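Below is a filled-in request sheet from our internal design queue. Each sheet records the structural input a requester submitted and the sequence that came back. We keep these sheets so that new team members can see what a complete request looks like end to end.

REQUESTER: design group, bay 2
PRIORITY: normal
MODE: inverse folding
CHAIN LENGTH: 305
BACKBONE (tokenized):
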């Protein structure tokens, strides 16, 4: 029993470290994406093509070697739609219309809410009182930014709805990767390779060699960050965190993304966060802390091996 409890504690800390690593990398995602959309000749279609061409090619040998491991087409479709090319297109369109601060609060925050709701329905996962309080704070923070988006003439209501859709898609992946995937790297390979297979023909048919007109430096920055760091490294760590902690708790690491993204946007893009966004950011982060800072559940004697 003591060995099982210690194993559970170690697994929890491993999950926390994986979640933190993914949050650090993903914190710069909206900044790098918006930088590419607003300061280069690239658009949402180009950045999506770069992201999954690079990651898909890198992970194709792994997937060919290990196969689908029994995953059906329904599972693959849910995972790819959740955080593959469709998700990337959705958030890129939103980032082309609105500042990073709006994405940084709405998409990760709503993803946590949707993940908890879907998990409760799919897995019948009970939540502790602190976890429920944390989720309530996250909802309040997202709702505050939503109110600002629809009430302020400077905010973008359409982008807010797009970012909510992005949160829902991300939640679909979060729950699906827990239910269907056999390993974090396998889930990452599934998303990257099948996004490449589905998106590459469509992009080439419509755009052809359009991407070659962009400066090689702009393409290279997006290729390294989107194709390697975000699509492979961060997604692997995130998937591992979800597997170790469960979708409801693993998802809360996305709440670290708002703070990192907002600060980076101020430093690199000169975007000054509004007072409403800052309040929403603090509220969402507090919700994350309440959800994470708890004692791990003990394993009953009957379940020890």
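RETURNED SEQUENCE:
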């Amino acid at each position: 029993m003591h060995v099982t409890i210690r194993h559970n504690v170690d697994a929890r800390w491993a999950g926390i470290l994986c979640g933190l690593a993914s949050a650090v990398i993903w914190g710069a995602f909206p900044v790098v994406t918006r930088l590419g959309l607003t300061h280069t000749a690239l658009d949402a279609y180009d950045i999506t093509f770069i992201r999954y061409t690079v990651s898909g090619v890198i992970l194709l040998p792994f997937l060919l070697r290990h196969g689908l491991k029994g995953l059906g087409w329904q599972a693959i479709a849910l995972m790819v739609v959740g955080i593959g090319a469709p998700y990337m297109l959705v958030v890129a369109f939103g980032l082309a219309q609105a500042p990073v601060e709006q994405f940084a609060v709405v998409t990760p925050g709503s993803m946590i809410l949707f993940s908890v709701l879907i998990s409760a329905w799919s897995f019948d996962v009970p939540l502790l009182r602190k976890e429920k309080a944390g989720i309530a704070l996250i909802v309040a923070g997202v709702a505050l930014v939503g109110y600002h988006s629809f009430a302020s003439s400077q905010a973008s209501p359409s982008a807010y709805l797009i970012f909510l859709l992005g949160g829902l898609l991300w939640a679909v992946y979060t729950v699906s990767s827990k239910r269907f995937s056999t390993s974090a790297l396998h889930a990452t390979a599934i998303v990257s390779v099948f996004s490449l297979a589905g998106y590459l023909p469509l992009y080439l048919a419509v755009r052809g060699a359009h991407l070659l007109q962009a400066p090689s430096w702009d393409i290279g920055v997006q290729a390294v960050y989107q194709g390697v760091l975000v699509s492979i490294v961060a997604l692997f760590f995130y998937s591992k965190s979800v597997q170790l902690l469960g979708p409801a708790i693993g998802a809360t690491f996305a709440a670290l993304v708002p703070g990192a993204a907002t600060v980076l946007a101020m430093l690199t893009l000169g975007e000054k966060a509004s007072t409403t966004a800052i309040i929403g950011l603090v509220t969402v982060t507090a919700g994350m802390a309440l959800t994470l800072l708890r004692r791990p559940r003990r394993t009953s004697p009957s379940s020890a091996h």
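SHEET NOTES:
- Confidence is low (pLDDT under 50) at residues 295-305.
- The longest helix spans residues 216-245.
FILED BY: M.R.
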